[in-house]
Amino acid sequence: MRKVLVAYFSASGTTERVAGDIARATGGDLYEIAPQEPYTAADLDWRNPQSRTSLEHADDACRPALAVELPDTAGYDAVFVGFPIWWYVEPRIVDTFVEGADLANKVVIPFATSGGSGIGRAEERLHGLCPGSAWRPGKLLNGVDAGAWAGGYAL
Which domain covers residue 59, as residue numbers? Predict the structure, then answer.
């Protein structure tokens, strides 16, 4: 049986709930991709071009610091990486995780939640950040049984 890590970033709790469903279905361990400086409601105001998330999004090189150390991924075969879609892509804090964690030679499966955007551009960006991984197609999990999707995934 493969050992699974479910790493996720959640600003509102939606992605966290989905990550929990995936962890339960796969028997995986959870790791929260938490920013060292938590996001406030003002930080998350995507309509304000000066909000923290707007400024982070505008800077491709931005890598917000994590609140806790990266997990030791040596014992994992597969890593699910979850996040909300912001401006059609993953939040930069997810880039911090993907570039910092040792995901080489691991099966990596992205999943996302969104108010209306797809996961396609985020998948493209993530593959470019960590090309040494065995990326599998991701899924937008709005209103989908995440546990059934993940539990049936061919790892």
Answer: 4-151
